[in-house]
UniProtKB/TrEMBL annotation:
Pfam families on file: DUF4731
Species, as recorded: Castor canadensis (American beaver)
UniProt keyword terms in alphabetical order: Membrane, Transmembrane, Transmembrane helix
Protein name: Small integral membrane protein 1
Start-end of Basic and acidic residues biased regions: 11-20
Region (Disordered): 1-20
Amino acid sequence: MQPQESSVHYSRWDDGSRDEVSMTAASSIEETSWRRICRKLCTGKLGIAMKVLGGVALFWAIFILGYVTGYYVHKCK
């Protein structure tokens, strides 16, 4: 495991009423790969297709759950 490098930069403005703190961390390989995959799957035409397919899958999952629940709730004895 490699140690992550990070740096903290603190600068105070002249008037003293505003302080600025900025932190930067060296990105690891996993983070870069994750961001690349997320960017590819969540943007553009592929992102739209993934969102549509996710919405359709969610619709059918809720529909089937409601159907099964309604069947057992309203089942004749």
